[in-house]
Amino acid sequence: MSEYDGIQSAYTTTFIKQDGSNTASPPDTVPETAGLSYTEADFGALSLKNPDTAGWIAIPGTVVNYPVVWFSDNEKYLDTSFEGKHSSAGAIFADKDNTMYPLDTNTILYGHNMGKGRQDMFGSLLAYKEYEYYAAHRYIQFDTVYERHGWWKVFAVVMYDVRDKNFPFPQTSFSDAAAFAEWQEKITAYSFHGADTDISPGARILTLSTCDRSQYRRYGRLLILAVKIDKED
Predict the structure, then answer these.
(1) CATH of 3-228, one of 3.40.50.300, 1.10.540.10, 2.40.260.10, 2.40.30.20
(2) Dihedral of CA 8/84/45/109: which sign?
(3) At 93, which helix (H) or strand (E)?
(4) Can you tell me whether residue 169 is helix, strand or coil?
(5) Burial of residue 226 (number of CB atoms within 10 Å: 0-12, 13-18, 19+)
(6) Which of the 8 DSSP states describes residue 113?
(7) How far apart, in Å, are the Cα atoms of 113 and each of 1, 3, 30, 87, 96?
(8) How far is residue 16's CA from residue 34's CA, in Å, rounded to a whole number?
(9) What pLDDT is stored for residue 22 in this prediction?
(10) What does the pLDDT read at residue 29?
(11) Residue 214 has what pLDDT?
């Protein structure tokens, strides 16, 4: 069992809500997410294990099901696991310029693409470039130690060259609604798949980032962008 398999087993519980069911399920479920698995993390225990614990991310139907850490230096968790061990897999971590409470307009999470066909960490995100995979995995769960945020809906998949100065993707906040709208327009223009989701001026965005050397070699990044969706009444 890998370190992260052990963490999932020891510190999480999975719920599945079906339409009309009265079984135990997360309260922040919207109709279109009925039937998807939802991971409930024991943040108290995780924080004792690692004080840098910031949240949990899971994408139903994929191997993405990991604790999220947050530290003042983005370099630390590139080669340090959640349990503090030296590891080429590192950990899933939030950008140092983000805040966890309240969340910024754009929360950025980084994870390695381990290469060689491996799907662990954020390696499976590369499959989002294929429309069929994108359509089948539109919902991401992301909660923080401070607040349950529930479901986020993927609305864009972007191949990004870090040398491109015209697209400041690591932006976590925006001066006004016009600046946010301009940023969205750039996202839409770069996205592999057409825009089909309305993004309001007050929306919260979640961006997952991993390496993708298929086009820009070591400068390439793949971004999966999702918007927080409202819970049902």
Answers:
(1) 2.40.260.10
(2) negative
(3) strand 92-94
(4) coil
(5) buried
(6) B
(7) 20, 17, 30, 13, 20
(8) 8
(9) 40
(10) 61
(11) 85
Which residue ranges make up each domain of the chain?
A: 3-228
Distances from the Cα of 5 to the Cα of 8, 30, 99, 114, angstroms: 5, 28, 27, 16
CA 169 – CA 172 distance, rounded (Å): 8
Positions in the chain short of pLDDT 50: 20-23, 232-233
Residues belonging to the chain: 233
User: Count of H helices and E strands in the chain?
Assistant: 5, 10
The reported pTM is 0.93
Classify the phi-psi angles of 217: left when phi > 0, otherwise alpha if psi is within -120 to 50, otherwise beta: left
Residue 122 has a CB neighbour count (10 Å cut-off) of: 26
Residue with tokens 């079984």: 23
